[in-house]
């Protein structure tokens, strides 16, 4: 890598948060060493690099770790400002708006969406899905505003921080539709986002980086069966 920079990414193929970082690195045209972590048996390197949360992803740049996916993407944008397109707009207010929506995705969409299929009761799952759909409707309005009438991406005519943050979830969205019939980006409710999803899926960088939907469905199906078997055994 130019300048002697060494990049190492600690991640997991099924983590959308690690996928975000891979997308950002690919957009910047940066090479890196990828370390696949076993999340059931975390490496000493991961535990040492992220001692607070002990989670992936972690980007190690010349021996120095950076944690949390959205923070890592902003770090990449700043540390390698001369490489590839910028993930954040130049205007300070537009940058603040992009950071707001990136944070909103994790706090208001991801958390309840996960609850919708990991909740312990049907009521909890239903409420999680309801909140996730409400968040998606707000993101429909955000896309309308941020795209400045162009309607292509949150970054206008190019993808940026918000696109990558949300786009990293699309393998999970496709897998959820296959497994449960749930369409988180439904053309009837959020037509702009549904069209955005198609555009994002067709990007060369997306095709190169995103996890395979079939592999994800297979993994989650096996995981669900194992969990159901464990619960049945515990109830005996």
Automatic annotation (TrEMBL):
Species in which this protein is naturally found: Lolium multiflorum
Similarity comment: Belongs to the GST superfamily. Tau family.
Catalyzed chemical reaction(s): RX + glutathione = an S-substituted glutathione + a halide anion + H(+)
Subcellular location: Cytoplasm, Cytosol
Keyword Transferase tagged: yes
GO annotations of cellular component type: cytosol
A Pfam family this chain is assigned to: GST_C_2
Alphabetized Gene3D superfamilies for the sequence: 1.20.1050.10, Glutaredoxin
One GO molecular-function entry: glutathione transferase activity
Highest taxon of source: Eukaryota
Keyword Cell division assigned: no
Task of the protein: Is involved in the conjugation of reduced glutathione to a wide number of exogenous and endogenous hydrophobic electrophiles.
Keywords: Cytoplasm, Transferase
EC number: 2.5.1.18
Domain GST C-terminal as annotated: residue spans: 91-223
Single biological process term from Gene Ontology: glutathione metabolic process
Extent of the signal sequence: none
All copies of domain GST N-terminal, residue ranges: 5-84
Name recorded for this polypeptide: Glutathione S-transferase
Class of enzymatic activity (EC top level): transferase
């Amino acid at each position: 890598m130019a300048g002697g920079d060494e990049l190492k990414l600690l991640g997991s193929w099924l983590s959308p948060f690690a996928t975000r970082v891979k997308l950002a690195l690919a957009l910047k045209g940066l090479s890196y060493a990828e370390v696949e972590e076993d999340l059931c048996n975390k490496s000493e390197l991961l535990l040492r690099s992220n001692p607070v949360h002990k989670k992936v992803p972690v980007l190690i740049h010349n021996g120095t770790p950076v944690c949390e996916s959205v923070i890592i993407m902003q770090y990449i944008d700043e540390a390698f400002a001369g490489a590839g397109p910028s993930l954040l707009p130049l205007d300070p207010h537009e940058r603040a708006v992009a950071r707001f929506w990136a944070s909103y995705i994790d706090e208001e969409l991801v958390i309840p969406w996960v609850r919708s299929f990991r909740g312990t009761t049907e009521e909890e799952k239903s409420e999680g899905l309801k909140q996730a759909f409400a968040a998606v409707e707000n993101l429909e309005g955000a896309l309308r505003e941020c795209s400045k009438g162009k309607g292509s991406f949150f970054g206008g005519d190019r993808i940026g921080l918000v696109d990558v943050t949300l786009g990293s979830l699309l393998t999970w969205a496709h897998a959820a539709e296959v497994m449960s019939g749930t369409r988180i980006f439904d053309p009837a409710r959020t037509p702009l986002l549904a069209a955005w999803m198609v555009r994002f899926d067709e990007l060369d960088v997306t095709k190169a980086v995103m996890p395979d939907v079939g592999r994800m469905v297979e993994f989650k199906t096996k995981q669900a069966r194992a969990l159901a078997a464990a619960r049945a055994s515990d109830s005996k």
